[in-house]
Write a structure and sequence with these properties.
The complex is a heterotrimer of chains A (165), B (751) and C (351).
Chain A: E1 3-9, E2 12-18, H1 25-32, E3 51-54, E4 57-60, E5 73-75, H2 88-95, H3 105-118, H4 125-131, H5 142-164
Parallel strand pairs in A: 1-5
Antiparallel strand pairs in A: 1-2, 3-4, 3-5
Helix pairs in contact in A: 2-5
Chain B: H1 28-32, E1 48-54, E2 60-64, H2 67-72, E3 76-80, E4 110-111, E5 117-123, H3 126-135, E6 139-142, E7 159-160, E8 164-165, E9 168-170, H4 173-178, E10 182-190, E11 202-208, E12 211-215, H5 221-232, E13 239-242, H6 258-270, E14 274-277, E15 293-301, E16 307-319, E17 341-350, H7 363-381, H8 385-391, H9 409-420, E18 432-434, E19 439-450, E20 456-463, E21 468-471, H10 481-493, E22 500-503, H11 520-544, E23 559-562, E24 565-568, E25 571-577, H12 578-585, E26 589-596, H13 600-605, E27 609-620, E28 627-637, H14 644-663, E29 695-699, H15 723-735
Parallel strand pairs in B: 1-14, 12-13, 16-17, 21-22, 28-29
Antiparallel strand pairs in B: 1-5, 2-4, 2-6, 3-5, 7-8, 9-17, 10-15, 11-12, 11-14, 15-16, 18-19, 19-27, 20-21, 20-26, 23-24, 24-25, 27-28
Helix pairs in contact in B: 7-15, 10-11, 14-15
Chain C: E1 5-7, H1 12-19, E2 24-27, H2 33-38, E3 46-49, E4 59-61, E5 67-70, H3 75-80, H4 82-87, H5 89-97, H6 101-106, H7 109-113, H8 120-123, H9 166-171, E6 175-180, E7 183-188, E8 211-217, E9 228-233, E10 244-253, E11 256-265, E12 272-273, H10 275-281, H11 288-298, H12 309-328, E13 349-350
Parallel strand pairs in C: 1-3, 2-3
Antiparallel strand pairs in C: 4-5, 5-8, 6-7, 6-8, 9-10, 10-11, 11-12
Helix pairs in contact in C: 10-11, 11-12
Classes of the chains: A alpha+beta (165), B alpha+beta (751), C alpha+beta (351).
Chain lengths: 165, 751, 351
């Protein structure tokens, strides 16, 4: 049974025929759309490497059936930078060494961007640790990740303050 | 052209313009944009997906597979089984060298551990291959599984770790114990642990006639090439492996395991490119693990609190078909001075995948037991655990009596203790609380890891445009080879780092040796340093022998390479650029090779180790028993620090692994079936962000002229050792409960 | 994953009709179902996708003072709804202590209620499991069972229900609204999940086709906002299922407990309402002695099902602590680590 679905991926509308309802968003992105920045670490919602934003909210793409997300607006790591201009979270991850092997990094960055949009963590490192706990890092780059998020948050707050001033 | 000795008469001087700088990762932009290509990200045209079916029994044989059901599934192309598979050139059970492991590549229907590959389904989609593997519905003839540290008769293994004797002694332990004023005896258990790199093992294999292209994460490109060549009967130069980035390795990607070989076989069977990626649960079997241990420590002290004897025995396991023995007791060789030391190992065979080196193999397991026991001994003597360690400070390596090539451990203790505020610690346990009423405990552990060197080669070139190139088949599994080695290369070539084309991560480059043993930066770095010196020497030769050069005749005085120019050592106003030298000589480039290798004379003379001291604070809920690490300070002396930014990250990572060892990680095996019941990342707990407190790392300055030309000792593994014990000791100090079975669990603390 | 047919019904009635067929199952976010399907634990023939149904994603205050939560409201949206968190703080705290932010963004209220046990033998399809395959046996009973049930278990099943959310909901007398083949009906949440007895394959009181459309909190549930906590002991600081958890909610007037609500998580095949303990508390002064008494009462029927005797003592302690925290008053702000014993660890250290 074929299903026509359409998705907006990183701002571009993609229409395609899904020949198999079993395909997850993660496998769709990686194996069919060749957007391999999003990683598969566990495929069971237990590591966060596959984190993407759907409708602006971070989710585990490994546990989302593509067919059920017909019409969804998806942002992946490939859509975060504007050309050579890195997103502040990306730049902060480099500056604070928020990764080592880099495999969990796209998920961490998408999760951090999602978290900032949720507005729940603010500048409290403890809250950031809690809110980023859905992204495992086996290399143990957590200290750098928290520092990177704090810096990106501070930058975002500063921008907002200037805008409102 | 003169022969070069790097330590005595360098043709150029390194001036540290790159080494020692806290550069951010040169692969950082690729990684944060999702553009770093890991093996499973490759998708050659016409590629098919392969999925392994694995055994659900731990011992016996497969009696049937429903191949027809799998083949009927739409999209399934082929099913590889013992009855239908490409022939290998050699029996995969033959160990052609010590770095070859016996693997299961469908050579028989025998099952020797749970999660062993028993078939491979190849399909046009991942979904079809996955379901095809499920449809095989294997039936088995099942034999009872042998599980645990008492599964059978024990024996003394011929060697432990990589070639270490199973037993060692110095002095008379029994006499030392008999004469002791105070004695302790304690038995500690550590569980099976799995590497669980975030990137599952993966391979994309493409055959073109008898040439083979592979994308695969590996910590040993050349070892992999050699193993594939012998298994498939093709020449090594027909094989090209790309491994630019590993999504973590920790030892599990060091040797060729069965699954990637199955991927290559599958590609051969179907005549198309094939991708095979392990499912997370499939990583709990065929790709190595840290074996469980049971360690008995006995110690005695004299009236002053000085050790009179140290006896460390470790029981461990290996698989029923191959040999790797966690060298846990060897942790007692280097740390504490004692007139009598004995270490010994024995083992039993269990129905498990063969254990393997996992980040600090032996050192991590042995260290948590030794550091716990040292704490117990200090408590028995009524001495502060740091003071006790200082009292038993080893001025020479205790097991050999050799002097240390360098040892700044005392400075580590001092600086770490000062930063942590150790002096305010209560001697008695269960004395400290925070405002919320939580129990607070402070613990210490000493860290140590040997400074190893393997063999490596590098190729260097200086080009007509004045730029340089450095090529080495080095591996970046997160430690930062793309950056740190490029820094060494830049200094070796006397160039700014941006003027050096640094190539690594493929098998067609010079052999960088294995990325393991915390020795990669030292080994590959030494080769790079040496290749750089050699190519500069060639360039200097061109200039100093050419009367048109301002450097003519400077051969005896020597030259200095810096910023793309050579200068006369005795008169820096005389010099010229690399480009000018090459242009005049009419050469497009000069190239040279260099090697890195251990220095046998220095190894004979000195004991070579990195050291450190880790201080941990934990809080424990007094009624509920839940534990949280709230602070850690680690002070490490590990020779030259190539990139402090990356070194700090490596040490943080190690400290988190240590915490995880003490509090979290454990594979739980069903005693009846031999299956691991938490083969996932939900219930096999590794620390999450909220588990990790603010961490503090101090790198203590240490110059070591003996370990290698660059004075690098390595930092990849030392962070775990010391940290695991520090956390365990802090839990004791918080609660007064000495838990001797790791990880420490809530129920142990419900006093 | 087994191939399945997929339908996206336009109405609840269509959904119920589709899902009533043998082999059919509802798909909401799929955070639990897909995990089960990937593990071969669940192999449905037909997925009835209810995520596009209209009107099930609302949080509606009711005229009587109660609240109706649509079954498709996402866990995170509910927890972060300011009115909800203010009125039912223990529920919000429980929600935020569960899983990860990513999973909470996806998972629905209805799906959370119906999540399956984390028993390793249920997940391991090579093991015998009466819940997964009726009558096959229970390998957990003599297996690795330190986290299994201590209340309400039977020889045929010792699994626990993993939800955090359900624990305070059961304490607050939540009601489940169900649309089924015979129309709409409602049952107490306490009656939704079943104890195993001889039929552990039936997790709940739902019949084929039954669709949870909403969860309702009765007017009285609001009355505990000032003294309500959820506390959860786990083996990681975050992103871990409860070893044991407790929801405690009190109404305190004139120094006496007017009403008490107490439920435990991680101890049984259902969220465990401790009514006997509530009786002990009612009318008493909120002090350590009565909390201890209540804790003892809550676990009187508990017995180990394996290597898990510690969970009984732990449950007593967590009850006493949750009551102590509730009596102290709901914190003005959600703790940085929701439901954690380490919610307030910034304090100075002293000997």
């Amino acid at each position: 049974m074929n299903h026509s679905i359409s998705l907006t991926v990183n701002g571009a509308r993609r229409d395609f025929v899904l020949d198999d309802p079993r395909v997850t968003l993660l496998d769709l992105l990686r194996e069919r759309l060749h957007l391999t920045g999003t990683k598969k670490g566990c495929d069971r919602g237990q590591c966060g490497a596959c984190t993407i934003l759907v409708g602006g909210k971070r989710i585990n793409s490994c546990l989302a059936l593509a067919i059920s997300h017909d019409g969804a607006d998806i942002l992946t790591i490939e859509g975060v930078a504007r050309g050579d201009q890195l997103h502040p979270v990306q730049a902060a991850f480099i500056a604070h060494d928020g990764f080592q092997c880099g495999f969990c990094t796209p998920g961490q960055i998408m999760s951090a961007i999602g978290m900032m949009r949720e507005g729940q963590a603010g500048d409290d490192p403890e809250r950031i640790r809690e809110c980023m706990s859905g992204n495992l890092c086996r290399c143990g780059a957590y200290a750098g990740i928290v520092d990177a998020v704090l810096e990106a948050q501070a930058g975002a707050s500063e921008t907002n303050r200037r805008r409102s001033a | 052209m003169p022969e070069l000795s790097l330590t005595s008469a360098p043709a150029h001087l390194r001036h540290g313009s790159n080494i020692g700088q806290p550069l951010t990762r040169r692969d950082g932009i690729l990684k944060v944009k999702g553009q770093a290509t890991y093996a499973a990200d490759n998708h050659p045209a016409g590629m098919l997906f392969a999925v392994m079916a694995v055994s659900s029994i731990a011992r016996g044989r497969v009696t049937s597979l429903d191949v027809d059901a799998a083949k009927r599934h739409p999209g399934v192309v082929d099913v590889m089984t013992p009855d239908r598979r490409p022939q290998l050139a050699i029996d995969p059970e033959i160990k052609t060298n010590p770095f070859v492991f016996r693997i299961e590549v469908l050579q028989s229907d025998e099952v020797r551990y749970a999660n062993q590959p028993i078939a491979v389904v190849i399909a046009v989609t991942l979904e079809a291959a996955t379901e095809g593997a499920a449809l095989l519905a294997p039936r088995y003839e099942t034999l009872s599984a042998r599980v645990g540290l008492d599964a059978g008769d024990s024996f003394v293994p011929p060697v432990v770790g990589v070639g270490n004797p199973a037993e060692n002694h110095r002095g008379d332990v029994e006499a030392g114990l008999a004469s002791a004023e105070k004695r302790i005896e304690a038995t500690y258990e550590t569980p099976p642990q799995y590497h669980n790199a975030m990137e599952p093992h993966a391979i994309v294999a493409v055959w073109d006639g008898d040439s083979l292209s592979i994308d695969m994460p590996t910590q040993g490109l050349m070892l992999s090439v050699a193993r594939i060549a012998e298994l498939f009967g093709i020449a090594p130069d027909k094989i090209r492996i790309r491994s630019p980035f590993l999504g973590g390795g920790f030892g599990s990607k060091g040797l060729m395991a069965g699954p990637p070989v199955l991927g290559i076989m599958a590609a051969k069977l179907v005549g198309k490119p094939v991708k095979l990626v392990l499912r997370r649960e499939q990583m709990y079997g065929p790709v190595g693990h840290r074996a469980p241990t049971r360690q008995r420590l006995r110690m005695g002290t004299d009236g002053e609190g000085r050790l009179t004897a140290l006896d460390h025995h470790a029981r461990t396991v290996s698989s029923t078909f191959d040999d790797f023995y966690e060298p846990a007791a060897d942790a007692s060789h280097t740390l504490y001075a004692s007139p009598a030391i004995r270490t010994s190992h024995d083992a039993v065979r269990v129905d498990t995948g063969t254990p393997l080196f996992m980040r600090a193999p032996g050192e991590a397991t042995g260290s948590i037991a030794l550091e716990s026991a040292i704490d117990e001994m200090a408590w028995a003597c009524g001495i502060d655990p740091l003071a006790f360690r200082l009292k038993n400070y080893a001025e020479v390596e205790p097991i050999t009596g050799k002097p240390f090539s360098s040892k700044a451990l005392r400075a580590c203790y001092e600086q770490g203790a000062a930063r942590f505020g150790w002096a305010r610690r209560s001697l008695q346990p269960r004395q400290m609380r925070d405002d919320a009423g939580l129990l607070v405990g402070w613990g210490i552990g000493t860290a140590t890891f040997p400074a190893l060197m393997f063999q490596a080669e590098a190729r260097a070139a200086i080009r007509r445009d004045g730029s340089g190139a450095m090529e080495i088949g080095a591996h970046d599994m997160g430690q930062g080879a793309w950056t740190a080695l490029a820094q060494i290369a830049a200094d070796g070539l006397g160039l700014d780092i941006d003027r050096v084309a640094f190539k690594a991560g493929t098998s067609d480059l010079p052999d960088a040796g294995i990325a393991g043993g915390s020795a990669h930066t030292a080994t590959a770095g030494a080769a790079i340093h040496s290749a750089g010196a050699a190519v500069i020497a060639k360039l200097a030769d061109l200039a100093t022998n050419d009367e048109r050069s301002p450097l003519f005749g400077a051969g005896n005085a020597g030259v200095i390479a810096r910023d793309g120019r050579l200068f006369r050592r005795d008169d820096e106003s005389r010099g010229e650029s690399y480009a000018e030298i090459l242009a005049r000589a009419g050469l497009a480039e000069v190239e040279a090779r260099g090697t890195g290798a251990p220095n046998p004379a220095a190894m004979e003379e000195y004991a070579m180790h990195a050291h450190g001291a880790v201080f941990a604070e934990v809080k424990v809920d007094p009624e509920l028993g839940q534990i949280r690490v709230t602070r850690m300070v680690g002070a490490f002396a590990a020779g030259r620090i190539v990139n402090p930014h990356l070194v700090k990250s490596q040490l943080f990572g190690g400290m988190i692994w240590g915490m995880s060892f003490a509090l979290h990680e454990e594979a739980i095996t069903d005693r009846r079936s031999g299956r691991i019941m938490n083969a996932n990342l939900g219930e096999y707990h590794i620390p999450v962000n909220a588990d990790v407190p603010p961490l503090d790392v101090i790198t203590v300055e240490e110059h070591d002229p003996h370990v290698n030309a660059l004075g690098i000792k390595g930092v990849g593994e030392i962070g775990i050792t010391g940290s695991a014990g520090a956390v365990a000791n802090a839990v004791w100090h918080a609660t007064g409960v000495r838990v001797r079975r790791f990880p420490i669990k809530i129920e142990e603390l419900l006093t | 994953m087994k191939p399945f047919d997929y339908v996206r019904p336009a109405t609840v009635a269509e959904a119920v009709a589709a899902a009533a067929q043998p082999g059919a199952t509802y798909l909401a976010a799929g955070t639990n179902l897909l995990d089960l399907m990937k593990g071969g634990v669940s192999r449905p023939d037909l997925l009835v996708d209810v995520t596009h149904l209209k009107g099930l994603d609302r949080i509606e205050p009711l005229a009587d003072g109660g609240l109706r939560i649509g079954a498709l409201v996402r866990n995170a949206d509910l927890a972060h709804d300011e009115d909800f968190a203010r009125s039912y703080p223990a529920v919000a705290e429980a929600l935020l202590s569960g899983a990860s932010a990513q999973l909470r963004n996806a998972a629905t209220v209805g799906g959370n209620l119906l999540q399956r046990t984390r028993c390793a033998y249920f997940y391991d399809t090579a093991s015998r499991c009466n819940k997964r395959e009726a009558g096959s046996g229970c390998d957990a009973r003599d297996g690795e069972n330190r986290t299994h049930a201590v209340l309400g278990w039977s020889e045929s099943c010792i699994a626990t229900h993993p939800s955090d959310f359900c624990v305070p909901l059961v304490a607050l007398d939540a009601i489940v609204e169900i649309e089924g083949r015979k129309g709409r009906r409602e049952i107490a949440l306490d009656g939704l999940h079943r104890l195993p007895a001889d039929t552990p394959e039936r997790d709940s009181a739902l019949e084929p086709g039954d669709l949870i459309v909403a969860v309702r909190l009765p007017p009285a549930a609001r009355g505990f906002a000032a003294h309500a906590r959820y506390l959860k002991v786990r083996e990681r600081t975050s992103y871990a299922f409860a070893v044991v958890s407790a929801a405690a909610a009190l109404q305190i007037e004139n120094g006496r407990i007017k009403e008490a609500r107490l439920a435990l998580g991680g101890v049984a095949a259902k969220p465990w309402r401790a009514r006997g303990a509530e009786d002990v508390l009612k009318g008493a002064a909120p002090d350590a002695a009565v909390f201890q008494q209540a804790a003892q009462r809550a676990l009187t029927e508990a017995k180990p099902s394996g290597d898990n005797a510690f969970k009984i003592e732990l449950a007593r302690r967590i009850v006493a602590r949750a009551l102590t925290l509730a009596a102290a008053g709901t914190p003005a702000r959600m703790p940085a680590l929701p439901a954690s014993p380490f919610a307030s660890t910034s304090g100075a250290i002293h000997a």
